[in-house]
Amino acid sequence: MDLSRLASIIDQHEDRDSAGEYRSVNPSRLDDTVATVRLGDAETFRRAARSARAAQVGWADVPAPVRGRVVASIGRLVEANKEALSQLVTREIGKPIAEARGEVQEIIDTCDFFLGEGRRLYGQTVPSEMPDKQLFTFRVPVGVAAVITAGNFPVAVPSWYLVPALLCGNAVVWKPAEYASATARAFAELVWRAGVPSGVLNLVHADGASTFEGLELALAERLVDKVGFTGSSAVGAKVGELCGRHLQSACLELGGKNPMVVAPDADLDLAVQGALFSGYGTAGQRCTSLGTVIAHADVHDEFVRRFDAAVRAAAIGDPTGDVLYGPMLDQRFADNFEKILGWVATHHRVLGSGGVGRIDAANPRDGFLGDPAAGLYYHPVLLDGVRPGDEVFGQETFGPVVGVTTYRHLDEAVELANAPGYGLSAAVYTNDPGTAFRFRQRVGAGMVSVNNSTSGAEAHLPFGGNGRSGNGSRQSGIWVLDQFTRWQSMNWDFSGSLQKAQMDTATIEPDLDFRL
């Protein structure tokens, strides 16, 4: 299919209105335009929500096990198109092909998990305090979900929303990141081909301002019952505030400043492997990317020496090859990373590469794979001597930079890990179960790894964070069902008379004064 010219899709038809165009460019080859996208406006978003509202009731009437078979078909279609979709991910956002294949596999895993949940949307039968009365609980769809996603995981993260939302009987308005428009359209086409009816999934291409305005209009018209947002903490706070004004709860999956504690008994080579992948994979452009290594004073120097050597030796460049990371996702992230490089201070020891900043002929990277001038490639930065109070310590960096600091006691390590106020992911490298469990108890992260990286989600575990990383909502596994269903209770009195709870309840009088 032709993905070179795109527009919003509402009720399975291209939306003709236009608020301008966006050019989605291959960040590893800036002369390669992947798609020209006709952007919608706030009214486009509202029309999509109206379409979803009209379609949702019919979709909810489809028995949940049948909706589960549609989810199964999504998984099989993605599996059959895995390589083509992976190649598109790599071309449009510059993610190394091995990671892109892993991302597409995550959609398949998510579908495999949820296809059976259509038969397990259980409620409960509850005993009543009254005779001849029965109580029940049911999971019911929330209605219409507006899903707004980032582009660093352009298909995996959307699948965490779309698959359970559709399974539970909701209709969805999906607004993907502009710089991942072609990948989003390809995934949406697979969902539609799996049998999702017209209007049940609408795809809106729009910029951030138009999306926010459209969401405000849709909430005011009571067209949207749930909002899912993946993106920055700053924008997530605004989305949450908007939802609160309309008495709606948002599922917010936001940024991270994810710590890794290296204990004195850690396997340092293993810790280096974990730090390398979680700190620099996807060029550090993951919400779960490693932010700061907190190394015990006894092993700090040796860890830094090994970590520096590993970063310098890592292959960087053309994402179609075997590289640790490729380009920045888009020019906006390159510009932001330039700002972050301004946070490097005189007390930081700069390691990890032969230069800092954009890789080019005047600022080369040893062993670079491909032509650095073709794309948005940046040197990896390893900063030793990072301190609390440094911007690079306290703020999400979203780029190939990792800081290192030290600690002497576990309480100090936990305090440093929690200090930035994010709470998404954390890791500890240790061979002492006591250290592992004490760290887990005290760290504020929603996800904790022991002897593993800060990155790496599985489709059947809850994913999400606390504090600046989110509002406690969780995606993936059975836990996400609480985002896309609401509990409904029913009482059925077949006594033939009005029985009033707490007033007409039978009592049995005990003899509480009895003593042996």
Characterization of this structure:
With 516 residues, this protein is an alpha/beta fold. It contains 15 helices and 22 strands. It has a seven-stranded mixed sheet with strand order 15-16-17-14-13-19-20, sandwiched between helices. The protein starts with a strand and ends in a 23-residue tail after the last strand.
Q: How are the SSEs ordered, and which strands pair?
A:
Layout: E1 5-6, E2 9-10, E3 13-14, E4 21-25, E5 33-38, H1 42-61, H2 64-80, H3 82-93, H4 97-114, E6 125-127, E7 133-141, E8 144-148, H5 156-167, E9 171-175, H6 181-193, E10 201-203, H7 208-220, E11 226-230, H8 233-245, E12 250-253, E13 258-262, H9 268-280, E14 290-296, H10 300-313, H11 331-341, E15 349-351, E16 381-384, H12 391-394, E17 401-407, H13 410-418, E18 422-423, E19 425-429, H14 433-442, E20 447-450, E21 466-467, H15 481-484, E22 485-493
Helix pairs in contact: 1-7, 2-4, 2-6, 3-4, 3-6, 4-5, 9-10
Active site: 253
Pfam families: Aldedh
InterPro entries: Ald_DH/histidinol_DH, Ald_DH_C, Ald_DH_CS_GLU, Ald_DH_N, Aldehyde_DH_dom, ALDH7A1-like
